[in-house]
Design a protein that fits this description.
It is built from 20 helices and four strands. It is mostly helical. The chain has a two-stranded antiparallel sheet. Helix 10 packs antiparallel against helix 13. It is globular, with a radius of gyration of 26 Å. The N terminus and C terminus are likely disordered.
Length: 634
Amino acid sequence: MSSHATTDTGHDAHHDDHHHDPGFIRKWIFSTDHKIIGLQYGITALLFLAFGFYLMMVMRWSIAYPHQPLPEWMSWVFTDGWKARWLQDGKVTGETYNMFGAMHGTIMVFLGIVPLGFGAFGNYVTPLQIGAPDMAFPRLNMASYWIYLLGGLIMCGSFFLESGSAKSGWTNYSPLAGFADGQIVNQWLAGQTQWLVGLVFLITSSLLGSVNFITTIINLRVRGMTWMRMPFFVWAMLVTAFLLLLAFPPLEAAGIMQLMDRVAHSSFFMPSGLFTKSEGLADLSGGGSPLLFQHLFWFLGHPEVYVLLLPAFACVAEIIPANTRKPLWGYKSMVYSVLALGFLSFVVWAHHMYMTGMGAAVSTFFQTTTVLISVPSVVIITALLISLWGGSIRFTPPMMWACAFIPMFGIGGLTGLPLAFNLADLHLHDTYYVIGHFHYVVAPGILFGFFAGILHWYPKFTGRYMSKTLNHLHFWPSLVCMNLIFFPMLVQGMAGFHRRWYNGGDAYLEKAADGVNVFGQTVAQHIDLNIIMSMGAWTLALFQIPFIINLFTAWKVGKKVENDNPWNATTLEWATPTPPGHGNFLKEPVTYRGPYEYSREDCEDDFLPQWSAPRRLDPAIAPGGTESKPVAHS
């Protein structure tokens, strides 16, 4: 056993003996322990992700087989009454497709990926990595989780309302969202209104969490943990917290104003002179601006991309050094890049709005900033790639996912560059190209990073490894299926396939026979890709089963870890007992060096943890200062 590894896992048997047992409800339900709250966020987010994935599978059936009813294996979850209301002869209608599409995007982003990355990984790992006993405000942390859960249940519960859930897209643009479900007498019981109520709760939860993270990271760092000794993971969480704190309030204000438009007949976003086919000239006070809502939404929307992305970057940046046995290349440049990403993410939002008719000067500004924001992302990815070069790579289960994250995110990033320019966006806007680009970033990109993180820290919070065999059954089919789903979207998008065709473009096939109808012929050439993508999606769902089995069975039957630091890593979370008990550390740790000291020539082992005290310190330098010179360690 390495001399730097902490003691055997049996040593924590008495770690909590002096603490009374709070009972199941207090410990696992209404807990103020950041570790339990992190697990609550993680399990809840995975359940929401599974639900959002199911909605997507139904949508893919409608796209691939628009004239066939849903098969029993897909429709069994619906009651007969629900099927009679929302399916036509068992087939998905345009209205149902819109409802599932709006909720799929909302659930995956606001209820799945953000809580998994920031809420779960952030809560569990951040205090451990800075040597803190808990978050700065434990009760606020608990409240943040329960407000998040309440918002998610309100949103998903709207499926059972008379109106169904929201149908105006995950962006909820006015005036469409202002008119939606207008037939419902009590607008508070309309799905579109419940979406807004749930959104307000979710944003409130994120704001509480962001304040907690910022305070914790600034104030609760252990002795010796200077800014440039913080792991990259902590830097990423700090920037993510600031993004949430600064970008979410405008959307919360927009959500409340749109809620007032619906229930109090205001016109913050409802313009004068609106005419609808069913009601004629709308009876509105008018004078509102639909574009104002778009600005407020996308002012959050693009920082939100980095709220999704930075936790995945953070996970991968911790896994690669531990599995290459060499320092993270360009640590400082990565830190400065993540800070630049945070700043630039606030000045690119209108590239989502080129179609609104902005002038040449404004569009040029946003084209420039959009290209600029790709630079720090490239710096981070390049640093991760160079970190692999010359390393003694161990292809552990988390390392497989981390290595796959880099090219998958690379494809997502590169396909986004054409969308930075308004000329290209005129053609590609609202096509499947945009869907393919965004999902390459989010699905095989961000989610691969999160799978890596789960496998990496699972031994810390359970004391057991996840199964390598089940991981292989999960990883390789997932890698293939992700590309089968999203790469054809890029091809269809360049051919002009619209992202909101509930029948996959089937209506244009009749026009293909017309020799002069070029678009109809184009649709006919590429429509069969719908079946390939849908088959890929359903196969992907099948191969998530090994992960689910692995996640819940390894807790009891997985191979036990040999010690508290099974990966021989260098950051402070591996100095805790396994699993960490109340207060996390047996004694207050001290940080003596940077976070990625691997393969030092002056060290007997191939890693030198942050908490390992040097044999000799310059008397003029306090503990936690820099070492006077490299000295041998045993």
